Amino acid sequence: MFTILLITDTGKSYERVSLFDLKIAEDAPDAPVVEIFDMFKTVAPGASLEGDLLFKVPAGEKPVRLYIELWNYRVNTQIS
């Protein structure tokens, strides 16, 4: 399976959320324009995917790392 976590400067981690979790209707006039990242989409070798990952982080916390684990692959990257 897969895990995607956003780690903040407090050391807390947060899982992805949806627009529904953020209590924003996708068709609301003030809804953000997002293209949700599709973790299950097939990608040809050498190709890339783009999309948005949404997290709900408390005010005052700053995102510092993104951790992704997909089967045997692990990526732990710093966010600047």
Write the layout of secondary structure elements.
Elements: E1 2-8, E2 13-17, E3 54-55, E4 63-70, E5 73-78
Antiparallel strand pairs: 1-2, 1-4, 2-3, 4-5
List keywords for this structure.
80 residues, mainly beta, 5-stranded antiparallel beta sheet
Detailed description of the structure:
The chain has 80 residues and is an all-beta fold. It has one domain. Helices cover 0% and strands 35% of the residues. It contains no helices and 5 strands. The protein has strands spanning 2-8, 13-17, 54-55, 63-70, 73-78. A 5-stranded antiparallel beta sheet has the order 3-2-1-4-5, with no helix packed on it. A hairpin with a 2-residue loop joins β4 and β5 (73-78). The protein is flat. It starts with a strand and ends with a strand. The model has no long low-confidence stretch (mean pLDDT 87).
